[in-house]
Structures are given as structure tokens and as C-alpha cells.
């Protein structure tokens, strides 16, 4: 398994567009919202970011755990601070990735399969009987290195205690 513990020493301020969904809803094409969220992000925001800028997928406001309950997902970018001017007509939200301990799963390849593979590995790991870490279900995030949403590297950060 290619995962490692990383300590974020300070919070990362981000802005982006958001949806609320459940893992159950994401199984079916009719009820899935994440594909449309990323499509909208790509059409309306990705082009305004500096080239090579990392892109973030931030999971927060968990109702409970990954099996039941809704959560918010923000497709976004890092901002210098929360007051940074967001030029957009969309409902852009500000969200903070808190400092703390994260277990990072890295994958490389074609999106969105690469992201799904990273999540599969994370779920497998956390559902294993001998799992050494406990998820916080506070904030988890995907970091798309160099902002490439088609092919590249994604680092999936899962918040742990």
C-alpha cells in the first residue's frame, strides 16, 4: 500500500463550488452529483487559475461516516486568505483545510479512475480489521498536482486522529 502520514502544520484556505451528496447517491448516474460538480468547475473556474496550480477536492461537513450520511464536496483552489477576492458569478464558498494529521494515498494515471482507485484503497485500509488509524470525518481532501484533472497525480488526504 502506498500511503504515508503527513502532518499539515498550518491550515490551507480554499475557495470553490460545492455540492452536498452521499456515497449512496454517487453510485447511480441519475443521483450522482460529483461528476457534474467537476464539469461545472472545469467549465467555469479551471481556466481562470494560473497554469500548474494545484486543484483541491475537499470533503467536509460529514453527517456521520462514509457508509451513511451526507457530506459537502468543494471543487476548488487554494487562496492566499479568506478575504481574497473571488471573481465569479457562481456560488463560490470558502473552506479551510485544517492543520493536523492525514494519511495520504497517492495514485497516478487517468482521471477519474485514479481518484476512485485512491478512495478504494483508503476505504479498504480503514475497513480492515487490523487498521491502525481512526478517521476523524472532519475534513478529507484530494490534491490534484499541477491541476491536471485528466491525467496526472492525485494525493488523497484522509484526516486521522
Features:
38% strand; 161 residues; globular; alpha+beta; eight-stranded antiparallel β-sheet
Structure description:
- This protein has 161 residues and is of the alpha+beta class.
- The chain has 3 helices and 8 strands.
- The chain has helices at 23-27, 34-44, 113-127, and strands at 3-8, 12-21, 55-60, 71-78, 93-97, 100-110, 139-144, 151-159.
- It has an 8-stranded antiparallel sheet.
- A hairpin with a 6-residue loop joins β7 (139-144) and β8 (151-159).
- The longest helix is centred in the C-terminal third of the chain and has 15 residues, at 113-127.
- It starts with a strand and ends with a strand.
Order of helices and strands: EEHHEEEEHEE
Whole-number average pLDDT?
90
> How many beta strands in the DSSP annotation?
8
As residue ranges, the low-confidence spans are none
Shape: globular
Classify the oligomer. Answer: single chain
The main sheet comes to:
8 strands, antiparallel
Number of helices: 3
Helix content: 10-25%
Main sheet strand line-up: 1-6-8-7-3-4-2-5
Percent strand equals 35-45%
- What does the radius of gyration come to? 15 Å
Structural class estimated from helices and strands: alpha+beta
What distance lies between the first and last C-alpha atoms, to the nearest angstrom? 20 Å
Amino acid at each position: 500500500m502506498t500511503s504515508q502520514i503527513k502532518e499539515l502544520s498550518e491550515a490551507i484556505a480554499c475557495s470553490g463550488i460545492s455540492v452536498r451528496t452521499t456515497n449512496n447517491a454517487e453510485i447511480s448516474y441519475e443521483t450522482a452529483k460529483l461528476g457534474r460538480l467537476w464539469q461545472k468547475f472545469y467549465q467555469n473556474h479551471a481556466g481562470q487559475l494560473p497554469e500548474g496550480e494545484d486543484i483541491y477536492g475537499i470533503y467536509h461537513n460529514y453527517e456521520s461516516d462514509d457508509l451513511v450520511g451526507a457530506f459537502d464536496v468543494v471543487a476548488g483552489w487554494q487562496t492566499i486568505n479568506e478575504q481574497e477576492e473571488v471573481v465569479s458569478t457562481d456560488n463560490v464558498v470558502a473552506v479551510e483545510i485544517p492543520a493536523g494529521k492525514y494519511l495520504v494515498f497517492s495514485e497516478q494515471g487517468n482521471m477519474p479512475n485514479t481518484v476512485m482507485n485512491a478512495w478504494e484503497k483508503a476505504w479498504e485500509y480503514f475497513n480492515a480489521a487490523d487498521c491502525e488509524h481512526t478517521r476523524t470525518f472532519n475534513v478529507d481532501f484530494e490534491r490534484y498536482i499541477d491541476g491536471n484533472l485528466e491525467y496526472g497525480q492525485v494525493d488523497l488526504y484522509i484526516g486521522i486522529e
